[in-house]
Amino acid sequence: MLLNRESSGKRWRIRPDGLGKVTGRLAYLTDMSAAGMLYGRVLRSPYPHALILSICTEKAQQLEGVHAVLTHLDVPGLNRYGIAHQDQPVFCENKVRYVGDAVAAVAAETAELAEYALTLIEVDYELLPIVDDAELALLQDAPLLHPQGNLLHRSQFNRGQLGSGFAACTHIVEDTYFTPRQMHTYMETEGGLFVPEEDGRLTVYSPTQHGFMDRLQLSRITAMKQERIRIVSSPIGGSFGGKDELNVQPYGALLALKTNRPVKLHHSRWESVRAGLKRHPMKISMKTGTDASGHLLAHQVRIIADTGAYATLGAEVLNFAVEHVLGPYRYDHVKVDGYSVYTNNGMSGEFRGFGGNQAIFALEGQLDRLAEKLGMDPWELRRMNMRMPDDPGPFGQPIVVTEGAMQVWNAAEASGLWQERGMPNREEEREPWIKVGIGSAFTMHGGGLGVGIPDPAGGRLLLAADGCIEAIFGYEEFGQGLLATLALMLIEQFGLAESDIRMIIGDTDLVPDSGSTTASRATSMMWKTLQNLKAPFTSQLLERAAELLGKSADKLAMGAGGIYETAGDSLLLTYKELAEAKGERISCSTAFQFPTSDTPRTGAHFLYTYAAVVVKVEINQLTGRVRVLDQYHAVAAGPVMNPQGFLGQIEGGSSMALGFAITEDAVMQQGQYMTKNLDTYLVPTIVEHRGTVSVEPIEHLPHGDSFGPRGIGEVGSVTLAPAIAAAIHQAVGIRVTKLPIEPELLQNDCAFAFAEEAVSKR
Amino acid sequence: MSKHEMLGAPRGAEQSELACTINGEEMKLEVAGARRLLSVLRDDLALTGTKRSCEIGRCGACMVLVDGKPINACLTMAYQCAGKQITTIEGIGAADGGMDPVQRAFLEEGGFQCGYCTPGMIISVKALLDRSPDPSEEEVEEALSGNICRCTGYGGIKRAAQRAIEWRREAP
Ligand code: FES
Ligand code: FES
Smallest Cα–Cα separation from A526: which of A496, A505, A495? Predict the structure, then answer.
């Protein structure tokens, strides 16, 4: 059944954070200010690659109204950060490696003054040759960005004998796919407020996906104990992976500590573009072969990922791509060779889909090409080669059994949009230069961080003094609807009323470390937490109530507003009365790890979400522009926790994928961004996002599954691009290998002749 | 400090008086000549419902009504607002603190996720409905084509706009 307001019934609820958002009353962290606050600005490198010969801050220091000018000499602790590898300098000491590299920072009484002070800082650079191509960066004589070389990470996977595999193939296709440097383009740019407290602690109000990771990193940089730092991290005006790494925090923290005044930083869009993370551009070469009947036999892949100047999560993204270029298919002979390479291009890092988007675009393209060679329906080819419920994961690792692959395949097959494909094409209704096609694609997408990476989870439930039941989690709300999902789970699983609940997230002083809000994991982990807490928390409550009421606990039940007699319907005791009763505070917590596969392969996943997309597109052969007319998404992710959020995540993810496919590219030349703002970096507007997006959740899980809902935060953003490519091929017979799709490729001379004819007839 | 360097110093700092109406309240503000409406609203008046994102008139996060017309506050110099009626998202709701039907439609349809674009979206829909009570789908698209949302995929936004239109149609 399609997911919408009607089909969701009462579960379609107004979001708890909704009122503040539609009235503008909700203060985002970049909206905050404080009395006596200073404005921070960061001086960044104008050059993609250069030695720093000297930095002189004297003139800036002397400017009236300037309270601090900081360079690497002013970092009390570690002058490096990074979630996985701490190799990104807070302030560069003697070398810059990209145009966002920070050299100094200023705090001044007005933003204008701070900006001006930056112009007074004198930095002497000696330019170095620029490495702006990941492939060339690997050559022997390439200039080195880092002493250990330009290779950040290599990831390989082999199974079977590739040579004999290909020798046995009847059909082989070979192609190279290119994907763009996509930008997160969260509408709220990075920023925040940094407040030194009277007791010497530091409070950081700045968006992040993992407050405790920020706290750890800031404690290293500032040489302060972690407990001396408090991170407040929600609400967030969008992140999509882009705010998981530190961005403004080191500068805000250091400036606030130095001046002992609150400091506000808020990136301009251009600064966000130059300093912020992007999706890894990848070049993926694939050779894939089948036997005469279409069974996949051999698959060879080479991935070159441009990770930019510093590591961030480049290695992890590559590992994910290596896993997902194998996808939900069976083959005996596989060889994948992936390289994540340092360049002087902007920083690449974590981005919704985490390398899956690039991998799946390439892999699905191969399947389409093979189907054509075989003269076979591409969807049928997928069915033939699809993994079965008991099959191991892409690396041969044990994974949780689901029928997800077949379920989404069937759903897409049965969808109205796919059925339309076989119907007569009503050419006569359109101008002759407009062509319409339908395409589909298919994916399995891993959730959680995978084997070998700490992936803690958990949370706490507590009956507060005022009778509210507090749900306390270390996750962040960046728009995905986490609070709404949590509220709905509490209401449905505990029988609570909305007014009984208080949700506390995004504050390291108040919440336990529940791990990062990333990798489509938060919903799964909140669900699991509540599963763990349900019995102990309920029984504590009921036992206390039983004492007070002089009844047996097994005759009592939790409900809206308080404790009920199971037999009757009467409210016996409110939560407030219960909270006021003598005794220890009723509280339960749980901590565990995101489940992982029993395999030594780092990054391999255990839980997967499956999705299939069918899309109908229209191509204008005069302009070469692609318009998406309709989309159908089948998503097998277990039970839907929050219908509005589910729909929003798939619709929103697909919009992002649409941009990835047709317009978005942070173009760089010689290590400089050519697309500095939203006038040249084009994200889809309402006009691009036409037609309907039908979303069909498949909720069924195998009997006895204990893992519950799988993540959906990313999967909506990975499968649309290859489906669009397939639809384009169906419409005009052209194979797309490079994203975003270049209009020139789809322009057609005959179409111009048609147009001229049509015009002359008028 | 040399004279040459001083030339680069922040200019347009001379204050002048700006008289305008903001959310129904008459105001007299001391504003430097180079200030933009967006920064006056956000930084001086703490009306942070109006958002800052691209600052070049592309995203619509900063949309406000000036004499009833949707305007990008990031492109508007403060002095251009002299004598004008400015309405921000904070001034959209009913006088009794209730919500405008457009706001309610966004809330009920879930026409937002992170919500950062939402005030601008609501201002644009509100302005559209005020000038064209029963707009076609194309008109809605056109009216919202200057508002970027990175989160919702526009489906929820379209449904919210549609709902607001229906309510208006049904209203006596
Ligand atoms: S901030 Fe004004 S249009 Fe983007
Ligand atoms: S809801 Fe996040 S930008 Fe629109």
Answer: A505
Q: A740 in ligand 2 pocket by Cβ < 6 Å?
A: no
Distance from CA of B152 to the nearest CA of A (A): 4
Helices A643-662 & A482-494 angle (0-180, nearest 10): 150
Residue A752: band (very low, low, confident or very high) from pLDDT cuts 50, 70, 90: confident
Of A185, A236, A686, the CB nearest to B144: A686
Ligand 2 centroid to residue A713 C-alpha, Å: 15
Contact A234, A474 (CB under 8 A): no
pTM more than 0.90: yes
Task: Yes or no: say if B20 and B85 are a contact pair by the CB < 8 Å rule.
Answer: yes
> Which-ligand-closest: CA of B54?
1
A401 neighbors A388 (Cβ within 8 angstroms): no
Q: Looking at this predicted complex, what is its ipTM?
A: 0.96
Q: Coil, strand, or helix at residue B58?
A: coil
For the stretch A488-531, pLDDT in tens is 999 999 999 999 999 999 999 999 998 888 878 889 999 999 99
Q: How far is B7 from chain A (nearest CA, A)?
A: 11
A395 residue type, one letter = F
Q: Does residue B73's CB lie within 6 angstroms of at least one atom of ligand 2? A: no
Mark yes or no for CB contact B61/A187 under 8 Å.
yes
The DSSP element (H or E) to which B143 belongs, if any, is helix B137-143
Sheet with A38-44: list strands edge to edge: A66-70, A102-108, A38-44, A263-266, A191-196, A202-205, A229-232
Q: Is B53's CB within 8 Å of A481's CB?
A: no
Tokens of A654: 């697909």
A147 CA to centre of ligand 2 in angstroms: 42
Specify the ligand 2 atom closest to the Cα of A187.
Answer: 3
Cα separations (Å) of A222 from A202, A225, A255? 10, 9, 11
β-strands A66-70, A95-96 pairing: unpaired
CA angle A269, A270, A273 (to 5 degrees): 90
Asked if A680 reaches chain B (Cβ–Cβ under 8 Å), the answer is no
CA angle A328, A329, A333 (to 5 degrees): 135
What residue ranges line ligand 1, CB within 6 angstroms?
B 52-55, 57-62, 72, 74
Can you tell me which atom of ligand 1 is nearest the CA of B62? 2
Choose which residue among B53, B116, B121 to substitute to test ligand 1 binding: the one with the highest number of ligand atoms within 8 A of its C-beta: B53
Cβ neighbours of A119 in B, within 8 Å: 8
pLDDT digits (tens, 9 = 90+) for A104-138: 999 999 999 999 999 999 999 999 999 999 999 99
CA distances from A54 to A102, A115, A173, A476 (A): 14, 20, 54, 41
Distance CA A52, CA A1 (A): 61
DSSP A579-631: HHSSSSPPEEEEEEE----SSS-TT--SEEEEEEEEEEEEEETTTTEEEEEEE
CA distance linking residue B76 with residue A358, whole number of Å = 40
CA A87 to chain centre: 22
Which of B43, B48, B51, B59 to probe ligand 1 with, by most ligand atoms within 8 A of CB?
B59
Tokens 């590219």 correspond to A665
Cis status of the peptide bond prior to A235, with omega within 30 of 0:
yes
